[in-house]
Amino acid sequence: MIMNVKIVALGDSTLVMGLTLAGLENTRIVDSKTFEETLNSVISDKSNGIVVIQEDFLKNIDWRLKRKLDNLAYPVIVPVPGVSGESTEGDDIKNLIKRALGFDLMAQQKEE
Protein backbone atom coordinates (compact mmCIF):
# COMPACT_ATOMS: atom_id res chain seq x y z
CA MET A 1 0.00 0.00 0.00
CA ILE A 2 1.44 3.36 -1.03
CA MET A 3 0.34 6.24 1.12
CA ASN A 4 -0.07 9.70 -0.31
CA VAL A 5 1.60 11.90 2.29
CA LYS A 6 2.50 15.57 2.27
CA ILE A 7 5.72 17.36 3.07
CA VAL A 8 5.09 20.45 5.17
CA ALA A 9 7.62 23.16 6.05
CA LEU A 10 7.46 25.56 8.98
CA GLY A 11 9.83 28.48 9.21
CA ASP A 12 10.47 32.16 8.77
CA SER A 13 9.76 33.92 5.49
CA THR A 14 13.28 33.31 4.15
CA LEU A 15 13.14 29.53 4.62
CA VAL A 16 9.56 29.26 3.40
CA MET A 17 10.26 31.35 0.30
CA GLY A 18 13.31 29.23 -0.54
CA LEU A 19 11.41 25.97 -0.17
CA THR A 20 8.46 27.34 -2.13
CA LEU A 21 10.82 28.32 -4.96
CA ALA A 22 12.25 24.79 -4.81
CA GLY A 23 8.73 23.43 -5.45
CA LEU A 24 7.38 22.67 -1.98
CA GLU A 25 3.68 23.57 -1.89
CA ASN A 26 2.77 23.08 1.78
CA THR A 27 4.64 25.79 3.64
CA ARG A 28 3.70 27.98 6.56
CA ILE A 29 5.40 31.11 7.78
CA VAL A 30 5.62 31.06 11.58
CA ASP A 31 7.20 33.14 14.30
CA SER A 32 8.12 32.26 17.86
CA LYS A 33 4.57 33.05 19.04
CA THR A 34 2.73 30.86 16.50
CA PHE A 35 5.25 28.04 16.09
CA GLU A 36 4.09 25.62 18.81
CA GLU A 37 0.40 25.86 17.97
CA THR A 38 1.10 25.43 14.26
CA LEU A 39 3.47 22.52 14.87
CA ASN A 40 0.92 20.72 17.07
CA SER A 41 -1.67 21.13 14.33
CA VAL A 42 0.67 19.87 11.62
CA ILE A 43 1.86 16.77 13.50
CA SER A 44 -1.73 15.88 14.39
CA ASP A 45 -2.71 15.73 10.71
CA LYS A 46 -1.99 12.15 9.57
CA SER A 47 -1.75 13.22 5.92
CA ASN A 48 1.54 14.96 6.76
CA GLY A 49 4.42 12.49 6.43
CA ILE A 50 7.42 14.80 6.66
CA VAL A 51 7.61 18.06 8.58
CA VAL A 52 10.57 20.32 7.80
CA ILE A 53 11.17 22.71 10.70
CA GLN A 54 13.51 25.63 11.01
CA GLU A 55 15.52 24.50 14.01
CA ASP A 56 15.85 28.00 15.49
CA PHE A 57 12.26 27.61 16.67
CA LEU A 58 13.02 24.35 18.50
CA LYS A 59 15.30 26.04 21.03
CA ASN A 60 12.53 27.61 23.12
CA ILE A 61 9.63 25.18 22.85
CA ASP A 62 7.83 23.73 25.85
CA TRP A 63 9.58 20.67 27.30
CA ARG A 64 6.46 18.53 26.81
CA LEU A 65 6.37 19.28 23.08
CA LYS A 66 10.12 18.65 22.85
CA ARG A 67 9.65 15.24 24.50
CA LYS A 68 6.76 14.46 22.15
CA LEU A 69 8.91 15.31 19.13
CA ASP A 70 11.79 13.18 20.42
CA ASN A 71 9.50 10.15 20.66
CA LEU A 72 7.54 10.77 17.47
CA ALA A 73 8.06 8.28 14.63
CA TYR A 74 5.40 9.70 12.30
CA PRO A 75 5.45 12.22 10.84
CA VAL A 76 9.21 12.41 10.43
CA ILE A 77 10.52 15.72 11.79
CA VAL A 78 13.43 17.17 9.81
CA PRO A 79 15.09 20.19 11.46
CA VAL A 80 16.98 22.44 9.05
CA PRO A 81 19.26 25.36 9.86
CA GLY A 82 18.06 28.93 9.47
CA VAL A 83 19.88 31.67 7.60
CA SER A 84 22.96 31.26 9.80
CA GLY A 85 23.49 27.89 8.13
CA GLU A 86 24.65 26.39 11.41
CA SER A 87 22.93 23.19 12.50
CA THR A 88 22.70 22.51 16.22
CA GLU A 89 19.51 20.52 16.88
CA GLY A 90 19.01 18.18 13.95
CA ASP A 91 19.51 14.42 13.79
CA ASP A 92 21.47 13.03 10.92
CA ILE A 93 19.43 11.41 8.16
CA LYS A 94 20.38 7.89 9.28
CA ASN A 95 18.77 8.43 12.69
CA LEU A 96 15.66 9.99 11.13
CA ILE A 97 15.19 6.94 8.88
CA LYS A 98 15.81 4.58 11.80
CA ARG A 99 13.19 6.34 13.90
CA ALA A 100 10.64 6.34 11.06
CA LEU A 101 11.12 2.68 10.09
CA GLY A 102 11.85 1.25 13.50
CA PHE A 103 15.12 -0.39 12.44
CA ASP A 104 18.52 0.59 11.06
CA LEU A 105 18.22 0.36 7.28
CA MET A 106 21.97 0.76 6.79
CA ALA A 107 22.71 -2.24 9.03
CA GLN A 108 20.27 -4.34 6.99
CA GLN A 109 22.07 -3.46 3.74
CA LYS A 110 25.50 -4.38 5.15
CA GLU A 111 24.31 -7.88 6.09
CA GLU A 112 23.23 -8.68 2.50
How helical, in percent, are the residues?
A: 25-40%
> β content, as a range?
15-25%
Report the top-level CATH class.
Alpha Beta
> Element order, helices and strands?
EHEHEHEHH
Query: What composes the largest sheet?
Result: 4 strands, parallel
| CATH topology term | Rossmann fold
Strand tally is 4
For this structure, what is the CATH homologous superfamily?
A: ATPase, V1 complex, subunit F
**Average pLDDT rating:** 79
Topology, element by element:
Blueprint: E1 6-11, H1 13-21, E2 26-29, H2 35-44, E3 48-54, H3 63-71, E4 76-80, H4 93-101, H5 105-111
Parallel strand pairs: 1-2, 1-3, 3-4
Give the key terms.
112 residues; globular; Rossmann fold; four-stranded parallel beta sheet; alpha/beta
